[in-house]
Fold these 3 entries.
Entry 1:
Amino acid sequence: MPQIDHQSDADAAGAAEQVLAGLDEQQRAAASAVQGPVCILAGAGTGKTRTITHRIAYGVHTGVYVPEQVLAVTFTARAAGELRSRLSALGVGGVQARTFHAAAMRQLRYFAPRVLGGPMPELIENKLRVVAAAASRARLSTDRASLRDLASEIEWAKTTLATPEDYPARAKAAGREAPFEAAAVAEVYRSYEAAKQRDGSLDFEDLLLVTAYALEEHRDVAREVRGQYRYFVVDEYQDVNPLQQRLLDAWLGGRAEVCVVGDPNQTIYSFTGADPDYLLGFADRYPDAEVVKLERDYRSTPQVVGLANKLIGQATPRKGLPGLRLLGQRRDSVEPRFVEHPDEPAEAAAVARACRELVDGGLPASEIAVLFRINAQSQVYESALTDVGVPYVLKGSERFFERPEVREAVLLLRGAAAGGSEPGALVPTVRDVLASTGWVEHRPSAGGAARDRWQSLAALVDLAVDLVAEEPTLDLGGFVAHLAERAGAQHAPTVQGVTLASMHAAKGLEWDAVFVVGLVDGVLPIAQSQSRPDAVEEERRLLYVAVTRAREQLTLSWSLARNPGGRRSRPRSRFLDGLAPDGAPLAKRSAKRPKVVLEGEAGERFERLRAWRSSTATAASVPAYVVFTDATLQAVAEARPGSLRELSGLPGIGARKLELYGEDVLATLAD
């Protein structure tokens, strides 16, 4: 019998050592720290999930942990599933890996009869219906966007433990951009809570709140839960909000067997109530905590890592834990590119062409991403990628033409077009139709869903302006047909495609090639943040998250004007100052292109094309550049295409331009 025990001990020791064998020095130190309060500061691409799972497995194989007594909590079901899958591969079963809400749901369902005097109450999965009724009782006029914003405000209040009475002062201190006056929001919040109480229902925030209450006020419940779970791991700890921290404290019950994992440089969810001070102040709360840093970046090239370090190195220092400086572990590659464009359509067209070249060169489209600050920016990239025949997938929100406000607007425009419209009056007609939905010319001061809705509708107006510049006689019927054509092309089923995503939606993901676009002040940092230094710094961290998504190729770009022909005065994002290879303020350079000089037959073709462009622009009453830029004419003159197919492969010639001018260009070249 003793021989068997010795053999078993030897096997366990061998399994434990095997768990640590593939880790680097920093990961090994973190995985070996299996007792007491532990804080793992894990930079982007440093193997955070690998380290967490190996730490749990090491604790199990060394006999410190009983698997069923470990609770690992994270923020998404996908992340929890990944933890379970990796633990299983390491020969560890029985560990509970769940989201905060899933863990609370499981516990509350079991203890509801004891705590609530009956079965688990009905769960409200969508707040909008209850919020709409509460808003009506408060005599507020709402639309779907303002209802979403009201629901977001209630969620923020509940996750930060603010009562309806607290809300006005707390919202003011936090710089919240509510859709209505704070007192009105508080009244809706109060009515919403009363309605839930009458109906005997709970929302997702209540799951955490009631579970914490059960542990705090019912000793028998606390004894049972704390007896079941003795060791805790909290992933993405920089994103924990006060409500989640309250539940974690209730689970711990004064014990210190907790390991938190996070990255202060990736704190980008303060607007939802996340409080990075829990991570930054961990060592103050637990003076004997072991703090381990993971800084070896296995994801990105040293060139991308260097740019990320320089970017975050310009941030205002924060008190608390030591900072992280990534150390690139991959081979050297190309330097990140900084590209300035005259306007947004030109920026989108250039990015789309670059994507086309990467795909043609063998890079799968699924390994390319275009990241932007706000969802409304996707429309111009959806169109540009469609023009060059590159499939795309939109992550984190509906495709542009699937958004509720866009579907409603297109329906109204179609109805208006059925009654006839005057040629030459497209733009004012579109504005009038959109005004009937509540859209106004000026961007709303409120943020959130209302701002997103305004930006989506504004994109339709901008599209009308662009199309009129190309075809001055276009009427509303033609505009609606054009919208249908775009929607149909963009909804074509795709097996894989370039990812279009907001920077927030990109967190936790990575691609071989990343284009970070639209980097102008007012967009990043977003205008609403510029009055608060802490909010500006969070915008800087958002760019840091975007930059660190790139494995090999990174391009950062911006445009000096929103529309072609507009004043080129938009300042490049302040976060790019000092990051360009030569440190020059690129956005302040002259936007004028050098004069095109071609000799011989190419020069003659170029001059003929310019003459054709001039007469075409005059006939259409539009500036010459709206027809084609000099750069595009130069490319045509040099390539001398003999067919529409050859012409379509040249820069600056999308499907629309090919349809309008292709035959004329070929005829001019033939002359």
Entry 2:
Amino acid sequence: MCGIVGAVAQRNIIDVLVEGLRRLEYRGYDSCGFAVVQNNALVRARTTERVADLAEQGKLLQGSLGIAHTRWATHGKPDTHNAHPHFSHDLIGLVHNGIIENYEELREELKSAGYQFVSQTDTEVIAHLIHHLYTHQAQQNLDLAVRMALPRLHGAYAIAVICKDSPDLLVGARVGSPLVLAFGENENFLASDALAVAEHAKQMVYLEEGDVAVLSHSNVKITNAAGEILTREKKPVPEQAVAVDLGPYQHFMQKEIFEQPRAIADTISNVESVGAHLFGATEEQFNQLEGVLMLACGTSYYAASTAKYWIESIAKVPVQVEIASEYRYRDTVPNAKNLVVVVSQSGETADTLAALRHAKALGHTQSLAVCNVATSAMVRETNFAFLTHAGTEIGVASTKAFTTQLAGLYLLALSLAKVKKRLSLADEQLALHQLRHLPAAIHAVLALEPQIMAWSQSFAKCENALFLGRGLHYPIALEGALKLKEISYIHAEAYPAGELKHGPLALVTEQMPVVTVAPNDALLEKLKSNMQEVKARGGKLYVFADADTQIASSDGIQVIRMPEHYGHLSPILHVLPLQLLAYHTACARGTDVDKPRNLAKSVTVE
């Protein structure tokens, strides 16, 4: 992984490739490169620097057929030799997202056939395999050679392939990793994300599992691995794929934090009443459910963990939340009458997709995706879906995708409660009123930014931090710690506040800031006792407290007062200052906020 761009045209496409990579930078990468056919030869440029460095190298090259890639290292360290594109005998050029699980076996086989490997990657195996088939079995037909190679590859992949003997032919294929085609005027494109090529096309096709695409400047053919012609529906380029300007903000993460009122408003804009219809289901289908199994990773897992409190409290339906990457590797007790809910920003998260498929294999028949991308694999593979309408999220550290997921999951809790006759009409109307007021409440919290900036100056000097929350707000503390880790590189951990005395209190010193989420809920007095435990050990408390909690700043306690308590929806408001704290701390430390080291935006490999 992490990003693929390909183009075939009747003009120089170097700028198209470079701009496409620039649009994919937000996904994270540690090297990048491109290759074109120039004067009947394959030429390439690769770097472990940023795309801007690649653009400088590109000024010396030109070509009307090319492929490009941003790489996030999996096999082999991030250096130029491991960067894509990979060549085989200067005849075949290839870029690849995903992981080939049987690459070691293929590598030994190809070595025995005389191939020499110059990288540590699994990707180079694909290039040599296609070359071997192209020269020995496919009668120098690139399309056929690629199709012959695919059954030999075990794992997940999206590939784009070119050959110096075919200067007007670009071949792509996908299994388990996304790939889209885009149609221009006498030119065609492929990419791992519509965002990369959106400005050059008005229509696109999302390739299905196992599809092979053969592109020239004037024609596109889609087949299966056997070469049988397939028909895929053309769709308009999503408007959100075009709009990626930073505007007046310093970073995309800051912009996206402040886009949350609009994102929440868009997510709930058409909600007049709650019920199964919001998710594309019938009342009968929801009423038959006995429980909910939620599968997610990272930030989405914390959204699911918050939803567990809502669904069990409001709908009285039991909920099990699983880390997707762990779920399918242990024995579980499936219940076919449970609703499987997968939560993902991209809808292409490899671990969550694999967990969904595993749940189906165990006999689960009802599934729901809460996702930000309508055309994603996750939405296509579930029975029901709820789209969050967060818009394009560029910053690797998720913000608006998280809060819109929470809004969607809260609607799920209300809908299950209504279907099961556990939500009165008055309570439904009150909940919807609070949801509609939520964007205004978010604006009020975002106005606290100057106070949070002042705190960030102290946090920037620390190397460790603790986050505390109780009940419904414990997952929010986890999310706050994750944000600080992701972009500032400060080691941060979150605990239920009641767990302090069972171990973590040993870490508390004057050098350990302790961030506390303190809403005015039923656990407030318990939380105050936990805070006193920190204060008694010399710890420094930084508290985000609702206005009526009667927690005041004093020696060892700094308080930022939230505008209002918001009941069940309080987690959405309380995560906002934690996002801002992480953001401004990272700025104070001078880290790359939008592209933190070692991380990718869309994790499409296991």
Entry 3:
Amino acid sequence: MQLRTTRSRLAAAVTAVLAVTALGAGTLATAPAAFAAMSAPSGQADATLSVFPEGADLAGVGTSGFLSYSYDRAGTRTVLWTPFDGGMSTRLKVPEDGGSTVAGSDVVVIGDAGRTDEMSKLTLRNMADPSAPAVDIDLGALNGTYLTVVSPTSVLAQIMKDDGTTELHIVTKTGATTTSREIAGLPEDATDFAGSMVHDGSVLVGYVTGPEDEQTYGRALIDVAAGTVSATYSAVPSGYDSAGLVFSASHVAWPDQTDNTELYISSVDRKTGEQTRTSLGLYGEWQYVLVGDWLVYGEPWTPVRAVSLTSGETRDLGITASAWASSADNTALLQGNPGTGDDGLFRVAAGQDGTPTVTKVAEPGKPVIPLEIDEVHVPDVANLDKSRGRVTLGWTLSRADAYLDVTLTHIATGKKFTKRLTAPATGTEFSFAWDAVFEEATPDEISFVNAPNGKYAVEAKATLLNSTGEPVYQRRFMNITRAYNPHDFNDNGSTDVFARDFNGVLWREDLRDWPYYGEIWTAKTTRVGSGWGIYKQIEAVGNAGGATPGDVVAVDGSGVQWLYLGKGDGTLAPRVKVGTGWQIYNKLAAGSDLDGDARADLVATDAAGVLWFYKGTGNYAKPYAPRVRVGGGWQIYNHITAVGNIAGTAAGDLVARDTSGILWLYQGNGRGGFAPRVKVGGGWGAFSQLVGAGDLDNDGRPDLIAYGTSGEYGASVYRSTGNVTAPFSRRTTNLYKYQGRSYNHIA
């Protein structure tokens, strides 16, 4: 325990830890020699020593193992629990701004603050049974802070009351229930509590009473089971407040600073009440423990010494130590200073004659850590519009000498993506950025198609490189979302374009959701079906039937209008007859919301040049309301296309091409009508078809596909700019490359 002083002149700190000896039997048997610093434990001369992680610092000790921590070059902290029996170490997850501690027992406390006295949200891990469930205790809900751990389910805590006074409580978590029991027998105005480790059912606490300018220091032994004070002691004011408390079966002790140059330890014989002051020396980084009636103390790089509190005899223990910890099994653990021949861990215990003995219990080395998946970095929801079509997935393993097999499965379709991740150059985080595509192989080619929206199972299997041990598994679920695209027929966020060839076969081109190398690419071509040659007009109309996927409307030679509902997997349901008399129209345009009701509408022009508005209903049996006349004079145009809201005004827009090849923009007014036309430009007569194709490049604005009849590229993409006077900029594409004469209708 690192002490802090209340006086600025005390620049150095004291670290106090406790090793206790029970009355009667139960002490650790050691070699007969009083100071066998390098010997193995008695009866275990040939036993293999435990491994202390190289470059780590000792953080605490229990009866079955010890806690250590270290930092790598990137500043990443590793906290390990290592058993004394030579078994595998356990890596503990500690919050980035949190801390961990162990107070003599095998229960590691992980908290939400770096200082133990500031921890309020705690996780208790019983390392005597590492597979046991952790216990979470929220002291913040009780307005409390942590003092020391009492059991695998209980802690001692200081509770602040509404009136500003404090109480000492044992807080216990059983299942989902938290209980709090006040310690009886303490002064009513006691505050600023500090606590030792629990030993033999007792804990030594320190406190302050009285007004700030007349404070009195007190110490009390508490019977944990009874929840009452069993003994009290007075103490002089100290620059170390109530910190540094230690006790054994024979003595209690704490720092006593009444001198400007030296640090003293005050100790009280628990049987006689006799008090002794022992000087450690000039202020420095002193650390000390009690082993029976011996005070063991030292500074880094200086010999560890022991002094008997009963006889005054002193001894040199023959080692130097940089870190100290104590255990509830009546022993202490010292980390030897590297470079002095004292590397490793040394146990200090009472020998058969009661004097301290030193036994080496751990050598520096690389600990064996079981392979585990410590952390999972898989988002619950991945919005690919916000992440440019990619999602980053990661897993932090306990070891780097492994590989990770990742499988992503789309629940609805069963489509899978697999990837093997090898060990990273540094650290233990295995990660990759998934482009949200699936590889689909056919006899002729391999296609990479956008992964559909929806729920995914994200499974990871970690395996050691040497194939020893069992693989470890982890599974999470993730939802992929994108903004709705009315031209998306397989729910993967990307535009689908339908093309009918001269044999009446309809094909669906699945474009990539994001441009690659500045171009729009076809991901996959899929045959939809034959028999589509009977239709005069085919139009992708967006959501006309009320379900999410886009739909298709087709008008045959006799004027019957048919609706093909999209099923969301790229296929179309059998056609449904929804109207007659449509032979009077020579041009259709659909898919845009023209009146601001969030439904796709349709417009049509007749031979007389009248433009008619058909409001979308969302009813697949009757997808459009009765027509409403918008205006006349549209006979001057040989092509009209609904392009969505490309100008940023109230609703969807139209573009119309006249017979001289000039393209005009009609901005929707949000009422099913249009503002006066704006000239876009000439030369558009080179194209046989214009298709309002939704947002092709994920910039939030719908775009236009222009299909030609000659040239290297069969189609060009005109991305919208949001500028009314110059609404399009051209972008190349491989869509229908060298296929400018292959199709007679595009939708």
